[in-house]
């Protein structure tokens, strides 16, 4: 959601920095062209967040299923 700040678990600095870098890339791309497809970068962020919070495969499946439901509505 645009305009809202979320806290990132910064105990893993390398992952946190990588997420921040990807977010900045998305913001830069969208600033230049709002229609730019950033799905690949967003997918990378998702994977890093799952890793950052040590989510299990089952937890990731639940999130991905619900994410698809939210996006399709």
Index terms:
single chain; 73 residues; mainly alpha; 3 helices; 68% helix; 0% strand; flat
Textual characterization of the structure:
By secondary structure, the chain is mainly alpha-helical. The chain has one domain (about 15-70). About 70% of the residues lie in helices and about 0% in strands. It is built from 3 helices and no strands. α1 (about 15-30) packs antiparallel against α2 (about 40-50). The two termini are about 15 Å apart. This is Type II restriction endonuclease.
List the helices and strands and how they pair.
Elements: H1 13-32, H2 39-52, H3 57-72
Helix pairs in contact: 1-2
What does the main sheet amount to? none
Structural class, judged by helices and strands? mainly alpha
Number of helical segments with 4 or more residues = 3
Shape: flat
Q: What count of structural domains?
A: 1
Q: Summarize the helix and strand pattern as letters.
A: HHH
Rg on CA atoms, Å: 13 Å
The averaged pLDDT comes out at 87
Distance between the termini: 16 Å
Percent strand equals under 5%
Number of strands: 0
Provide the helix percentage.
Answer: 55-70%
Q: Please mark out the parts with pLDDT under 50 across 5 or more consecutive residues, or reply none.
A: none
Can you summarize this structure?
With 73 residues, the chain is mainly alpha-helical.
């Amino acid at each position: 959601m645009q305009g809202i700040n979320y806290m990132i678990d910064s105990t893993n600095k390398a992952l946190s920095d990588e997420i921040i870098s990807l977010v900045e890339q998305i913001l830069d791309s969208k600033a230049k062209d709002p229609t730019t497809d950033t799905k690949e970068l967003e997918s990378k962020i998702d994977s890093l967040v799952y890793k950052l919070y040590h989510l299990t495969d089952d937890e990731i499946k639940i999130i991905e299923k619900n994410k698809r439901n939210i996006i399709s509505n």
